[in-house]
Amino acid sequence: MLKLRVKFKKYSLIRYISHLDLMRLFQRAFRRANIPVEYSKGFNPQPKFSFATALALGLTSDGEYMDIELQEEIAPEKFTKDMNDVLPEGVEILEAHYTDDKKSLMSIIKSSSYIIELIPLENSSKKSIYETINNFKRKKEIYITKSKKKKGRTIEREVDIRKNIYELDIILYESDRIILKTLLKTGSTGNLKPELLIKALIKEGLQVDDVDFNIHRLDLFTEDPKWE
Question: Which intervals hold domain DUF2344 (predicted)?
Answer without folding.
Answer: 3-194
